[in-house]
Every structure is written in C-alpha cells, then in structure tokens.
C-alpha cells in the first residue's frame, strides 16, 4: 500500500521552505508537524500554509513561515536546551521550538494573547511550554538562564540585561532596528571572550514595546 501523502498545500509549504534554503531536517519535519492552521485566526485557516505573515488579535502578527523556519534553524536548538522566546503572539513559534528543545519559556505583553496561546498550546499537547504574561525588557529575576533566546518583535537595540540571561555558548537571535524602518536579524553568540555579533538578513517585525499592554 502506498504511504499516505500529506495534503497538497503542506507539500507546497515544505517545498517553499526548502527552495528558500532551509535544510535542517529536524526543522523541516517540525514545520510539517505543527498545524499552523490552529494558530491563525479562524477566517484565515485557508491561508495557513501560504508563506506570509497573518494578522492575529491585539493588532499583532503570526510571523511568515519562512522567517520562523530560518530563525529556528539559525538558533541551532538541541534537545537538552532551555529556550526563551520574547513575543508569544499566537504561540506558533513556541510550538515549533517546544518540539526541538527540552523546555520553552515564552513571554507576551498582551494578556489576551498570552491566555489564548497558553490554552491553545495545552490543547494541542505542547506541554513543555510555559507562557508568561510580562515584559521581555523586564524579565523576572526568577526566570533563570537560557541556552537559546529568540526575540520575535523588533528591538531598537539588544538590552545587556537580556544578554546576561544567556548560558556560556548560548545564542540569541533578534530583529534589531527602528520600529518603522529596516530591521536586521542579529545573531549573538556568547563566547568565553565575550559576545560575538553577526548580522543575518533584513526582516520586518512588529515593534517590541515596553511594559505589559494596558488594553485587554
Ligand atoms: N512569535 C509569534 C509572533 C510574534 S508577533 C508567533 O509565533 O505567533 C510579536 C509579539 O511580541 C506580539 O504579540 C507582541 O505583543 C509581543 N511583544 C512586543 N513587545 C513585547 C515585550 N516587551 N515583551 C513581551 N512581548 C512583547
């Protein structure tokens, strides 16, 4: 008997990611397994496997799949890793990370989004993700340190206080740049000598804003 084929839109999705240069097999497999349609707005389910960002509640966005895959690949997540995400949004990136890491802590400044993502992730069985309502610029002291940090909202610069949360050998990836201008994905590696910083590609993210959002 022939092995069942994934639906055509999922095959196209994989093809697009490969064509655009994603080659890490674990990342590609995870992108195939995590149901993006469960993270987009109900009316957008038909567009879930297009390679584009989509609007979610609170005027925020679920990132473009290629960017999610690219950042995940660049992060180099291993099974033993504790990972921090700043900007939970829909919880999609957190779900992808949770399949590759030991533990994911994701922080979001909108209560509506944090509560929504927490419920969605629990319902779908991503039980090694903790979603925290909070501000990624003011991490709670008790949050600890991380092997990998991913920021999914644009910061004008990377705060030292965030870099301090990296374990030795740790990697941070963040979009850096003005809120309405060109932002660049920056990768920072914590070495014995200090921090090694590299610029990857230009991107476009919603801004990282300080404080817990007052509305909702
Ligand atoms: N990773 C998300 C997409 C994130 S959009 C996904 O997979 O769906 C960026 C998110 O970052 C928004 O939800 C926004 O509210 C949040 N955000 C912005 N500034 C923040 C901050 N200082 N702390 C925590 N979350 C923040």
Molecular structure report:
The protein has helices at residues 8-19, 25-33, 65-75, 92-100, 111-123, 160-163; strands at 54-55, 61-62, 82-86, 103-108, 129-133, 146-151, 166-176, 183-191, 194-203. The protein is an alpha/beta fold and 216 residues long. It has a single domain (8-203), classed as 3-Layer(aba) Sandwich (Rossmann fold), CATH 3.40.50.150. The strands form two sheets. The protein has a seven-stranded mixed β-sheet with strand order 5-4-3-6-7-8-9, with helices on one face. It has a two-stranded antiparallel sheet with strand order 1-2. The protein is globular, with a radius of gyration of 17 Å. The termini are far apart. The protein binds S-adenosyl-L-homocysteine. S-adenosyl-L-homocysteine is lined by residues 60-63, 86-87, 89-90, 92-93, 107-110, 113, 135-137, 152-153, 206, 208-210.
């Amino acid at each position: 008997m022939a092995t069942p084929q994934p639906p055509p839109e999922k095959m196209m999705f994989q093809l697009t990611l490969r064509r655009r240069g994603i080659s890490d097999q674990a990342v590609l497999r995870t992108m195939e397994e995590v149901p993006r349609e469960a993270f987009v707005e109900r009316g957008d389910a038909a567009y879930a496997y297009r390679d584009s960002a989509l609007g979610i509640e609170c005027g925020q966005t679920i990132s473009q799949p290629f960017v999610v895959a690219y950042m995940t690949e660049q992060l180099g997540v291993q099974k033993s890793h504790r990972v921090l995400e700043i900007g939970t949004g829909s919880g999609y990136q957190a779900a992808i990370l949770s399949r590759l890491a030991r533990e994911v802590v994701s922080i979001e400044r909108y209560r509506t989004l944090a509560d929504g993502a927490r419920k969605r992730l629990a319902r779908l069985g991503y039980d090694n993700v903790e979603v925290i309502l909070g501000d990624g610029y003011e991490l709670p002291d008790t949050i600890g340190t991380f092997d990998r940090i991913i920021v999914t909202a644009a910061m004008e610069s990377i705060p030292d206080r965030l870099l301090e949360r990296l374990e030795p050998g740790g990697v941070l990836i963040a979009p850096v740049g003005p809120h309405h201008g060109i932002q660049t994905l920056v990768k920072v590696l914590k070495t014995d000598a200090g921090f090694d910083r590299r610029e990857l590609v230009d991107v476009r993210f919603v801004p990282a804003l300080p404080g817990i959002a007052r509305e909702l």
